[in-house]
Amino acid sequence: xxxxxxxxxxxxxxxxxxxxxxxxxxxxxxxxxxxxxxxxxxxxxxxxxxxxxxxxxxxxxxxxxxxxxxxxxxxxxxxxxxxxxxxxxxxxxxxxxxxxxxxxxxxxxxxxxxxxxxxxxxxxxxxxxxxxxxxxxxxxxxxxxxxxxxxxxxxxxxxxxx
Length: 162
Hints:
Strand order of the largest sheet: 2-3-1-4
Number of helices: 5
Shape: elongated
Oligomer: single chain
């Protein structure tokens, strides 16, 4: 039997565990975990960030940001869960939206991996040219043409912003 040159016989016993067909489990995200994040999907693969920002232009003043997952999936990060629900309820021509809990596996994995960076978008504070003016004047050694009253008004405005 050993030297007979027989071919290896296949096992008659079925395998107990099939590791080849195993797929990693999708990260389970509840609606309460990241309620201000939605999945944007089913848009043309040649869309760029500007195109998605144009679709959601009405939310930019309230605070809106985009994180890409792949060519046809992105995560929309809103300033609050209320604005995210509002965006879900509006219909868009070129894109589809759904809650992150119903999103694709890749979107959930990206959201889980970058959960610290997906905090609600905040409005950018009002800017002032005072610091830039002070740096330029200091570098060039020129005198400022602002009156002391204007300087005091700028200082007060910066303190109020802080």
